Known about the structure:
Elements: H1 4-18, H2 21-24, E1 37-42, H3 46-56, E2 62-68, E3 78-83, H4 90-103, E4 111-117, H5 120-123, H6 133-145, H7 150-159, H8 167-172, E5 176-182, H9 205-214, H10 221-229, E6 246-251, H11 253-266, E7 270-273, E8 278-281, H12 282-297, E9 307-316, H13 327-339, E10 345-351, E11 363-366, H14 370-376, H15 381-386, H16 390-396, E12 400-401, E13 412-418
Helix pairs in contact: 1-11, 7-9, 9-10, 12-13, 13-16
Amino acid sequence: MGSPEEFLRRLFEAAIAAGSPDQCVAQTLPDPPCGRTVVLGAGKAAASMARAVEQNWTAPLEGLVVTRYGHGVETDSIEVVEAAHPVPDAAGRQAASRMLGMASGLGSDDLALCLISGGGSALLAEPAHPVTLDEKQEVTRSLLRCGASINEINVVRKHLSAIKGGRLAEACHPARVVTLAISDVCGDDPSVIASGPTVPDPSTFGDAIDVIEKYGIPAPDVVRRHLHSGSAETPKPGAKAFSRDEYRVVATGRQALDAAASIVTAAGYTPLVLGDRIEGEARQVAEAHAALALRIRGRDHRVLPPCVVLSGGETTVTVRGGGQGGPNTEYLLALGLALNGARGIWALAADTDGIDGVGDNAGAVVFPDTPARARRAGLDPEAALADNDAYAIFAGIGDLVFTGPTRTNVNDFRAIYIEGRNG
């Protein structure tokens, strides 16, 4: 097996590979249409999905996809644009505007092949009139810091957008729209993945207002007036624009966990898969997982060590401090403190897109002595957690995980390895 750290890293690599467009796009492509095929896409996996389409398509192609800076790849006939994430920028706005223009020129014999993945909400940045990009950026920053779930954030995004919440499919009509999606959301809900640009939107302006009020978001006046106006609601289920469309989820967080679980089983250990829908505050989830790991280590659980506890989903962080870190590093710091030096327990948590929050790392690794080593290095892990500064702890002791852009995104991956009594 190698060391526990090496084993955990191998599980993470398997999770990433399970969501690779090279593995999941080719077998899900539709047949070419009688007319044109225009590829439109957005997300951290959009460029690699576009490349996979080109490598497996047998007819002429054209199109445009937008991905995060640094996540692009070389393509032949599909243009790749890079833009900002998670706060949108002018490049994302221009790309979204161009996509709407391309969509509006499609006819009934044409196919819009839409490639959607996590991150698309920020990258498709065409605000609804009269909201400006600056105002949308301001609201986005507040939403990302308040602890709202991705579902709640995307409800607001859809109602401040001219392209999300089904509006891209609406623009493509009467062409047939086939969407291939790599899911980074709990439950794989198409209306939540990248804010559902090609599917009906069940949420309303009222739902968006509820999110703004729930978290006390200081939205600009023009944003509040737009939401309260209730005008130009997103297209709903049953709308004619979706009558010929098809949506295919081609990779999910569950597939990533299953790939990791197979390796755990092959190594002779027991996988305990908690599921791919774990949500909540990162530090609270960590405390629950630490309690579970300690029970298993103490043989007070139906699953006995050696085993690996696997989970996915998307935790959140309510930012109250001024430090640096994402939900995975915050989860791990809280986990390490809750384990309190317990022997025989290691953990890795990382985002499968290669970026934890807004940092340059995918995540980190926790060792049994992580808090003790941090203190010996002159760091204060408790103070760092209070300041949302988990990055500094793991950077200070050399335990960050770096992958660079993976060009896929099937949400967060967490693995806790618990060795047997003789380990």
